[in-house]
Amino acid sequence: MSETAKEFTVQLTDLAATEALGTALGTQLRAGDLLILTGALGAGKTTLTQSLGVGLKVREGIISPTFVLARQHPSLIDGPGLIHVDAYRLKDQNDVDTLDLESTLAESVTVVEWGLGKVEHLTDSRLELQLDREALTAAAEKPAVNPWEEEADLDEPRLFTLKAIGPRWDEPAFEHLKSTLLDAVHTGELHA
Asked: Is the Cβ–Cβ distance between 67 and 88 less than 8 Å?
């Protein structure tokens, strides 16, 4: 069965725009939502997740789960918690299944960095988010950025692409989400 994706791309001019978009996105999420984040090292995936946490109103202290694979952040307002997963070292769906994400998916928002091709089986709806700093850097003919630098120190523009897949993100829900995110960063859409 073919999945139909709704998609848009927007330029985030700086770190503040990335944080504003993440916070706005967090306010639109509900328990059961799955987000898959992709982007090169240092693209801003963890920074975006921290901002999602602000919008969701979960406990502070979101850091990359690289060495523990998954971290739980409970809600401070009786809303959904946040499960933050780093799937970089996981090979496939079978490795992901050892984390038992299905047991928390229904009552949490689950964010999986490096999860593309590994976690789509968890639910019939998802958001695929991509952050791309290199495309803009190359276009501006700037020198390459060290990908091992801290994300918070990198106040550069990024391209943010969102794909919404599945019945949770039907046309009205997608259009509302898109409008909310574009309003948050006060800019226009680059690609439909």
From this structure: no
